[in-house]
């Protein structure tokens, strides 16, 4: 038996990245299908959701899902990182993070998407696809039914398992992850993080009344040793987890190699990779789910622009530039954070304290652009710190001073999100800015700066800009430009 369908977008994989894209595309009125091979709820390792997840779920009108089950909210934390003594962070300091059951959360997101019009094929197998004159023809199998899907775009959100090693551009040294569980009552009701000379360990209570412990070590530490021995050894070398190392009821010990990477071909003829099928974050980051969902929203804007205008070059450029910026930013942040750990002189930490973009066997234009951007990214200068007690005092002292545009400032065209599509706008570059920027808030910064001629006073600029925005925002914008040396003395 065979049947055929036509959609604007076919999504492969029902994780957070794929479901975020599905919900947003449905909200834009697009015809969307999703194929998922597993029945839900399915077991998942990742449950720690960073505080920024609330804004994302609110944007998708799915905020209620984070309170549906017995998830743990705003756990305190004890951390040993920059020094060998513990620091305790209360729930307010950590922000409104969530320890969720990912299997249940994915199931709830999927059901919400179905309620909003998603065509779901589950459990079903994605078999293969071929390029057509108008998009793609995908072949699925659901039970004994062969299904053909004609679609403009395929969004591959199957995660790490869908990527071969030859397509991975490594962005950090690999680590081995080992994890196990204790009854939650055996450990503190808080998140624990500890750096040791040989790696680092994370632990947290789970919604299912268990306490998960994850140990990250160098692959070299596994040579000629059993996983159980290495796991207990890594815990015995700690302050926060030593009590767990002597417990005899550690359950379900598992291990895997963890790679941090970017895909060498994230966009090919409208076959687009999302989430960890596009790039992964070092496990040091607790924002994996949030980043995957945010990147999906950027991919949706690119796809929607092409469906609206047919401008594939703009959509692809925006998507790939966004991915390159995310990969480089996270790579540099991770290396800097590893370098701050108290055992930084030990081999595990020294190897991970230097950011790099690795080589891979498949030559691609994307890899070259990523490498060029990485090599050309300057060290970010700290904004000028003027020892002035408060903002208004700084404004008062600068008010009558003449200023001019920095000679290091440059302007360029870039695609920006305008509503639900992309449009070309002017952006600015400067050595003191991490990336080029087009907007500060909702104001086009290039319009403000390009209108400056000669050497006006700081105060006259604020008054001029206040005609296009509230005075408070005009002051903040002018101070941003001054602190980052976009404006300087003549």
Could you characterize the architecture of this molecule?
The structure is a single chain. This protein has 490 residues and is an alpha+beta fold. Among the domains are: 2-70 and 99-164 and 267-328, 3-Layer(bba) Sandwich (FAD/NAD(P)-binding domain); 391-488, Outer Surface Protein A, domain 3. Helix content is 31%, strand content 27%. It contains 14 helices and 26 strands. Strands 1, 2, 8, 9, 10, 11, 19 and 20 form an eight-stranded mixed beta sheet that branches. Strands 6-5-14-15-16-13-17 form a seven-stranded mixed beta sheet. A three-stranded antiparallel beta sheet has the order 3-7-4. Helix 1 (16-27) packs parallel to helix 4 (102-115), helix 7 (288-309) packs antiparallel against helix 8 (312-339) and helix 13 crosses helix 14. Residues 379-389 have low confidence and may be disordered.
């Amino acid at each position: 038996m065979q049947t055929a369908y036509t959609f604007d977008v076919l999504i492969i994989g029902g994780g957070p990245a794929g479901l975020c894209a599905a919900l947003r595309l449905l909200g834009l009125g697009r015809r969307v299908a999703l194929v998922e091979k597993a029945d839900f709820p399915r077991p998942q390792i990742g449950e720690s959701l960073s505080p920024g997840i609330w804004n994302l779920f609110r944007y998708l009108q799915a905020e209620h899902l984070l309170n549906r089950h017995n998830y743990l909210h705003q756990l305190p934390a004890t951390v040993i990182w920059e020094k060998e003594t513990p620091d305790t962070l209360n729930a307010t300091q950590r922000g409104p993070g969530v320890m969720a059951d990912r299997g249940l959360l994915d199931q709830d997101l999927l059901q919400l998407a179905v309620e909003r019009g998603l065509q779901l094929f589950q459990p079903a197998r994605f078999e293969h696809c071929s390029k057509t004159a108008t998009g793609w023809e995908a072949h699925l199998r659901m039970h004994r039914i062969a299904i053909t899907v004609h679609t403009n775009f395929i969004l591959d959100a199957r995660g790490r398992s869908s990527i071969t090693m030859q397509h991975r551009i490594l962005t950090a040294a690999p680590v081995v992850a080992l994890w196990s569980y204790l009854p939650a009552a055996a450990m503190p009701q808080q998140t624990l993080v500890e750096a040791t000379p040989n790696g680092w360990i994370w632990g947290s209570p789970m919604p299912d009344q268990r306490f998960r412990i994850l140990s990250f070590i160098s692959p070299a530490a596994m040579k000629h040793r059993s996983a159980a021995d290495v796991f207990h050894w890594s815990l015995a070398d700690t302050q926060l987890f030593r009590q767990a190392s002597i417990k005899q009821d550690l359950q379900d010990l598992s291990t895997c190699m963890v790679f941090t990477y970017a895909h060498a071909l994230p966009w090919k003829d409208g076959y687009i990779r999302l989430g960890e099928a596009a790039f992964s974050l070092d496990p040091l980051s607790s924002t994996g789910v949030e980043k995957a969902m945010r990147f999906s929203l950027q991919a949706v804007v690119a796809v929607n622009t092409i469906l609206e205008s047919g401008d594939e070059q703009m959509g692809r450029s925006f998507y790939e530039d966004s991915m390159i910026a995310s990969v480089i930013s996270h790579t540099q942040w991770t290396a800097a954070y590893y370098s701050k750990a108290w055992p930084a002189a030990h081999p595990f930490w020294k190897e991970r304290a230097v950011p790099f973009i690795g080589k891979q066997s498949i030559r691609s234009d994307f890899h070259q652009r990523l490498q060029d951007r990485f090599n050309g990214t300057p060290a970010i200068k700290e904004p000028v710190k003027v020892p002035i007690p408060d903002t208004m005092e700084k404004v008062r002292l600068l008010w009558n001073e003449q200023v001019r545009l920095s000679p290091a400032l440059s302007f360029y065209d870039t695609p920006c999100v305008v509503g639900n599509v992309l449009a070309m706008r002017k952006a600015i570059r400067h050595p003191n800015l991490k990336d080029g920027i087009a907007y500060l808030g909702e104001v086009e910064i290039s319009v403000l700066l390009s209108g400056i001629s000669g050497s006006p006073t700081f105060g006259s600029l604020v008054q001029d800009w206040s005609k296009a925005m509230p005075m408070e925002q005009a002051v903040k914008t002018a101070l941003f430009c001054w602190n980052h040396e976009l404006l300087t003395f003549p």
